[in-house]
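Side project, low priority. Logging it here so it doesn't get lost.
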Amino acid sequence: MKPGIHPAYEPVVFRDRAGGFAFLTRSTATSDKTVEWEDGNTYPVIDVEISSASHPFYTGTARVLDTAGRVERFERRYGTRGAR
């Protein structure tokens, strides 16, 4: 790799405010805000709106779409092609 052209890859805390969940990882993203982590060190913190702790798919609160109704509406509108 060429030196001096890549962004710094350092530890960052991503915090989900809605889910009350935070995790420490490495990233090129940075922030002016900091937080003291469980290990006693201070890291930049990036607040996110949604994570696996608050996303409906991961929490089991996802809505089920009515796909059968959509197919029937499509067939009423455009007919069934090729079916005889």
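Brief comment: The chain has a mean pLDDT of 82.
Revisit when time allows.
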